[in-house]
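Backbone-to-sequence.
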């Protein structure tokens, strides 16, 4: 199937993107293309114009700023997965991006495109939720920062406003005594997460000082497993404590409508979610020691 007709523009700067968005209401931004192009071909999206931001070099790469890492939205999954520096700075991002799709997807897909698309089964939103990331956007009123808890709103829905462009993803650097890991049940065809669990634990003297656990692929957006986190506070990170805390993941899902399809029903997802939380916590705890 072919896309409906649209005008195409290749922007050279963020300023030009802003101008093009203003002149073309309803336009879509094109980064790596792995999210937008299938929607165009299936005519599920029919924007009057597509603005290609792939030539804007300022949106590529990452750098350390104090205790944080600032990642340009055009940085590819392969850039993050294959970087020894990123493996030191934030191993969770390296691990997660290395599990996305296949080599072709990782070489073209971008962190900003994945985040802005807000696919419920995507891996990065879950990992970024556990990390406590924030996002920088530029729009007609200038720049603003959006915390991860306010960013993902639902299926393909974020807090980005009309005519805003996501420019950076900011994550905290890994600290001493900290471990982080991601576990997922991948769909065998798409490699999206049927269930994904990300865990970050802070350990001192063999006990968990704090934990951040996020779940994805279960509801319309990534969610924090607050009951799991509370159960781990000031507890030894041994097998029994982790298993007991992970079992509470079901309670964190509450009354929300779980996603389900012909591959994995909502009931199945609910039943096996604690296993992936336990796996992520176990590996995160091993890293922290």
């Amino acid at each position: 199937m072919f896309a409906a007709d649209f005008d195409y523009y290749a922007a050279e700067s963020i300023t030009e993107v802003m101008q093009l968005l203003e002149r073309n209401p309803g336009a879509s931004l094109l980064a790596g293309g792995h999210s937008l192009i299938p929607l165009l071909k299936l005519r599920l999206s029919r924007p009057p114009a597509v603005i290609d931001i792939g030539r804007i070099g300022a949106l590529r790469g990452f750098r350390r700023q104090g205790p944080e890492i600032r990642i340009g939205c055009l940085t590819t999954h392969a850039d993050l997965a294959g970087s020894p520096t990123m493996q030191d700075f934030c191993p969770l991002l390296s691990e997660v991006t290395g599990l996305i799709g296949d080599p072709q997807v990782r070489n073209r897909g971008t962190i900003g495109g994945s985040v802005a698309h807000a696919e419920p089964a995507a891996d990065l939103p879950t990992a970024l939720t556990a990390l406590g990331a924030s996002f920088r956007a530029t729009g007609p009123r200038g720049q603003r920062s959006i915390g991860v808890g306010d960013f993902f709103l639902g299926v393909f829905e974020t807090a980005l406003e009309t005519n805003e462009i996501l420019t950076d993803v900011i994550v905290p650097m890994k600290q001493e005594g900290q471990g982080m890991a991601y576990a997922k049940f991948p769909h065998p065809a798409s490699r999206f997460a049927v269930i994904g669990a990300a865990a970050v634990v802070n350990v001192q003297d063999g006990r968990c000082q704090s934990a951040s656990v996020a779940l994805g692929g279960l509801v319309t957006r990534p969610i924090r497993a607050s009951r799991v986190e509370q159960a781990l506070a000031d507890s030894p990170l041994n097998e029994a404590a982790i298993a007991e805390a992970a079992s509470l993941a079901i309670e964190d899902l509450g009354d929300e409508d779980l996603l389900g399809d012909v591959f994995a029903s909502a009931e199945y997802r609910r039943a096996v979610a604690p296993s992936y939380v336990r796996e992520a916590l176990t590996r995160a705890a091993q890293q922290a020691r």
